[in-house]
Specification:
Two copies of one chain form a homodimer.
Chain A (H helix, E strand, L loop, with lengths): L23 H14 L8 E2 L2 H8 L3 H13 L3 E4 L3 E4 L2 H7 L16 E11 L2 H7 L6 E11 L2 E11 L7 H6 L2 H7 L4 E12 L2 H6 L7 E11 L4 E10 L5 E6 L2
Antiparallel strand pairs in A: 1-3, 2-3, 4-5, 5-6, 6-9, 7-8, 8-9
Helix pairs in contact in A: 1-3, 2-3
The structure holds a DNA duplex (19 and 19 nucleotides).
Chain lengths: ~250, ~250
DNA sequence: CAGTGGTCTAGACCACACC
DNA sequence: GTGTGGTCTAGACCACTGT
């Protein structure tokens, strides 16, 4: 009788709306996710098995199963055959709430301010042309931005986009992140690769951040791809290491 | 008739073995993955729809579907309702072959060499105790390693593990990565969080890498969690920025 | 042994994209 | 329209874990 801890009965207030366009599995998954996040399903508790859940919610087992898989993919729950399903610890959950492809700074909750230093269409320099897969001199949108938090400049961002594709306005760029704007413009982001390194600031770079020459900088180059494998954006950024670091979380396998 | 490009017929030599303990969906998924990776399914080609695939392989549609979802999750394929399934471009695919939670250096194919500088059980210093969730002074395994590639030292790795859990041998550590050893020891890794930053090397640190004081260092702190939310490992590392950078890829959403 | 999650089937209907 | 992927059902059997 593996009821070491009493099962979590379904009646945690889950309701499903069969008239909604939202898929059933997603309705269930989201409500369970919320229940975990606000503590109604406590860390370490065993959940009822999927058959029982399915029966009580009057959905089929595959549908219930899909909801569970969603939680597993999000790292909120661990399943073991023959054992059951448990909610992960609060600490792990907190650590997983960090983002990755999202705008770096927005997540850190420091109300960042972005000023556009420059926004123009230029001929692609050779390194940019190579990355974007276009010819040297082809028109690209070049965006230079300075990000600050608590009026301390933290990051200098340089981005290149193929000019024919989409060119944001200054105002839009000050209001939201580049990725959000791309999504609004109907670009289907697929994936990105990035390289993070470090180097020493030049005098001019250090001055940007109110530091001295020789200060450590974090650097990041990122290339973002489209659904169709086309490069959407190339970014070359540097950050004041004394005020900024990259935080990320990883799920196993 | 949306057959802009002739569908990829099933007969790319896929075979399934119903006697195998390997799940059907996985057999199919792996063979398709292989076909994409070695070019038999070329980038941009449309694949036959899942009904056709299922019929030709004599599996049910949900099973075929699950194989497709595996490819989507790996970023190898893009699906659009009403349109079809296409293989992503070769460039995107290559960019996605980079790892994340795996051993950093192993993937870069530089045949790294690891020397164990020190391996002992010590009382937990306060920061370590806090991260591992144990009391200050409790026994922890402390591992100091130096990683080199092409006989150039690149990284200084410091790890702490709860001593009661698992203590690797020197020999094992020189042969394989810490994470591989943990897995062999039956530890179910769940997730990890890491922080990447930069700073300036002290004289002693610089000497390790054959550099001068003031050289830029990349730093990384990582905390890895168990299935059950217990901290398995805490690492505090620094890297010679002139010879090392972190490369990673991200899948959208 | 009983209980759990993991796999698989053979259907069905729906939502969306394109012509 | 037609064709595609997205959702959903109601069963079945298997594999693993624990007692």
């Amino acid at each position: 009788m593996p009821r070491d801890v009493p099962l979590t009965p379904l009646e945690h207030g889950l309701v499903i709306d069969r008239g909604s366009p939202v898929p059933l599995y997603f309705q269930v998954a989201q409500q369970l996710e919320q229940a975990i996040k606000d503590g109604r399903l406590r860390p370490g508790t065993r959940m009822a098995n999927e058959i029982e859940f399915a029966a009580q919610l009057a959905v089929s087992r595959p549908t219930m199963r899909r909801a569970m898989e969603y939680l597993v993919d999000k790292g909120l729950v661990v399943r073991q055959r023959g054992v059951g399903t448990r909610v992960v610890s609060a600490e792990v959950r907190r650590s997983l709430e960090l983002t990755s492809l999202h705008d770096d700074l927005a997540a850190s909750g420091q109300q960042p301010h972005t000023s556009v230093l420059s926004l123009e269409i230029v001929g692609a320099p050779d390194t940019v042309a190579e990355v974007l897969g276009i010819a040297v001199g082809d028109p690209v949108t070049e965006i230079l931005r300075l990000r600050s938090a608590r009026s301390q400049p933290l990051a200098h961002l340089t981005n290149y986009l193929p000019a024919d594709r989409f060119t944001p306005t200054r105002e839009a760029l000050e209001g939201s992140g580049l990725y959000a704007l791309l999504r609004l413009a109907g670009v289907h982001l697929h994936s990105a690769t990035q390289v993070i390194g470090a180097r020493i600031a030049t005098t001019a770079e250090a001055r940007l951040f109110g530091e001295r020459r020789g200060a450590p900088l974090l650097t990041m180059q990122r290339t973002a791809y489209d659904d169709r494998g086309i490069v959407v954006e190339y970014g070359n950024h540097f950050y004041a290491a004394s005020h900024y670091s990259f935080q990320m979380s990883l799920l196993s396998t």
